[in-house]
């Protein structure tokens, strides 16, 4: 039995989903942040529960061959890049094993029942993000921005993040300089007072969109010099987003365009997409192209197929599929995203894609009742996965294939298990590393219909 404040020595055997090292005392696991598999460490027990405990790393006695020195000075404080101290090949193995473990352990598949393809790694480990969201606050009487410390809302100042494109870091610096020189108050979430809450920056094709999220609807003034500085990074659009609610949600519903068009364009495999502040678009454009190529490979639509793209966002997967399919139907609940999707179809001269705004289950039920049928369904839900009603709807739609794109392999596995009960077998799956240095990983799975007894009712 171990107790709090015990100082122990052990070899790290594994990583948790959150990236903490796992040391076992007999069969009792202790989770130690900053430790990697293969390390021999000395650690202090900080908390014990009935089935597991937590420890603080005191000393690395023998470093793992997979350990490396993190390149970021904020690594120990930020809590974002939890794997930066792990060699990239080891990161890929961790993520690949995680997805596979979830599909077998939660999904109920044996390793022999599906083809698990090698993880698709990134060409660039750093400077890959095309989007950043920084909370703004006060530290030592000075306005700062950065990232929240783990399990807190305390800001660790950081205006130069290694996984962000350097133009984003520069843009954030320009905005913070404007805030400080203009003496604009910053938001205090406890008091619900102060003006600037977040800085949001997104990159496009030689374009940059900066949004300042404010706790008031009064238009920001004196932004001319800020626009001039931002213009050194590309074509600028500057937006003031209004969010006056007591909420952890970053963006409010209303935007004031202070300069430019209020949107940017991002090109993906020859397709050009219009992206506004509220639009969902993957943060790693290069890996996004690989992910969508894998989804297209799994779907393999022909000119006889109608594809339903559920949770379609700005239509990125929809238009990717439309070039090979007979027709595509995209469904998304965010109005701005659907507006962008329709415009994106026009921009790319794609006439065989239709987009509908609303709850996926409600829209698809309406389309189904009017005679629309899906030969292939693509789903790309949020982290919580598909709700039960949508899975039931997929059963009743009876597409011959379902391509499931997921940012959370645990909920993917849960849903795959349900879809198996509905007559769909997972035949292939693949992990794609969209987020090097972090524990997050995308995955895509192909499910093929083995029963055809279900019809739309």
Please identify the structural class as seen in this structure: alpha/beta
Mean pLDDT: 93
Name of the CATH superfamily of the largest domain:
Vaccinia Virus protein VP39
Topology-level CATH name of the largest domain: Rossmann fold
Tell me about the biggest sheet?
Answer: 8 strands, mixed
Count the domains. Answer: 3
The strands making up the biggest β-sheet line up spatially as 6-21-22-20-19-16-17-18
Structure summary, number of beta strands: 22
How far is it from the N-terminal to the C-terminal residue, by CA? Answer: 59 Å
Query: Strand percentage, roughly?
Result: 25-35%
Mass-distribution shape: globular
CATH class of the largest domain: Alpha Beta
CATH architecture of the largest domain: 3-Layer(aba) Sandwich
Count of alpha and pi helical runs: 10
**Quaternary structure:** single chain
Keywords for this entry:
457 residues, alpha/beta, Rossmann fold, OB fold (Dihydrolipoamide Acetyltransferase, E2P), eight-stranded mixed β-sheet, seven-stranded mixed β-sheet, 10 helices, globular, disordered C terminus
Topology (SSEs and partners):
Blueprint: E1 7-15, E2 21-25, E3 28-32, E4 40-48, E5 53-62, H1 75-78, H2 88-105, E6 115-120, E7 131-139, E8 142-148, E9 155-157, H3 166-182, E10 196-203, E11 207-214, H4 224-230, E12 235-242, E13 254-259, E14 264-268, E15 271-275, H5 285-299, E16 306-310, H6 316-322, E17 327-332, H7 335-347, E18 353-357, H8 360-369, E19 376-379, H9 388-397, E20 401-406, H10 409-421, E21 424-432, E22 442-449
Parallel strand pairs: 3-5, 6-21, 11-12, 16-17, 16-19, 17-18, 19-20
Antiparallel strand pairs: 1-2, 1-4, 2-3, 4-5, 7-8, 7-10, 8-9, 10-11, 12-13, 14-15, 20-22, 21-22
Helix pairs in contact: 2-10, 3-4, 8-9
């Amino acid at each position: 039995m171990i107790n709090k404040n015990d100082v122990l020595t052990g070899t790290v055997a594994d990583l948790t989903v959150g990236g903490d090292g796992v040391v076992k005392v007999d069969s009792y696991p202790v989770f130690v942040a900053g430790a990697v598999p293969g390390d021999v460490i000395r650690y202090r027990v900080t908390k014990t529960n009935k089935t597991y405990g937590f420890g603080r790393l005191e000393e690395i006695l023998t470093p793992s061959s997979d350990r490396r020195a993190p390149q970021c000075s904020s690594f120990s404080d930020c809590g974002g890049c939890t794997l930066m101290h792990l060699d990239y090949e080891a990161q890929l193995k961790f993520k690949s094993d995680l997805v596979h473990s979830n599909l077998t352990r939660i999904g109920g598949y044996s390793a022999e029942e599906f083809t698990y393809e090698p993880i698709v790694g990134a060409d660039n480990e750093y400077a890959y993000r095309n989007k950043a969201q920084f909370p703004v606050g006060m530290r030592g009487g000075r306005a700062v921005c950065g990232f929240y410390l783990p399990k807190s809302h305390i800001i660790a100042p950081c205006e130069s993040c290694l996984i962000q494109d350097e133009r984003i870091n520069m843009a954030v610096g320009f905005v913070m300089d404007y805030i400080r020189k203009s003496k604009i108050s910053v938001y205090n979430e406890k008091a619900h007072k102060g003006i600037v809450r977040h800085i949001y920056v997104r990159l496009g094709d030689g374009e940059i969109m900066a949004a300042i999220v404010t706790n008031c609807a009064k238009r920001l003034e004196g932004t001319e010099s800020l626009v001039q500085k931002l213009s050194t990074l590309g074509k600028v659009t500057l937006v003031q987003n209004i969010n006056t609610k007591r909420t952890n949600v970053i963006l409010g519903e209303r935007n004031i365009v202070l300069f430019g068009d209020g949107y940017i364009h991002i090109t993906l495999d020859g397709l050009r997409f219009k992206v506004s502040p509220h639009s969902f678009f993957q943060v790693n454009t290069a890996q996004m192209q690989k992910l969508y190529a894998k989804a297209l490979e799994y779907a393999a639509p022909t000119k006889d197929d109608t594809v339903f793209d559920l949770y379609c966002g700005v239509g990125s997967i929809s238009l990717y599929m439309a070039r090979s399919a007979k027709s595509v139907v995209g469904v998304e609940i965010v109005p701005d995203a659907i507006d962008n999707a329709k415009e994106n179809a026009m921009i790319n001269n794609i006439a065989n894609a239709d987009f509908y705004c609303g709850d996926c289950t409600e829209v698809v039920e309406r389309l189904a009742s009017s005679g629309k049928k899906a030969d292939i369904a693509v789903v790309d839900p949020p982290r919580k996965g598909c709700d039960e009603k949508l899975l039931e709807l997929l059963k009743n739609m009876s597409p011959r294939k379902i391509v499931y794109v997921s940012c959370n392999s645990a909920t993917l596995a849960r849903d795959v298990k349900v879809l198996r009960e509905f007559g769909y077998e997972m035949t292939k799956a693949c992990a794609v590393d969209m987020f090097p240095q972090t524990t997050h990983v995308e995955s895509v799975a192909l499910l093929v219909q083995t029963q055809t007894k279900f019809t739309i009712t």
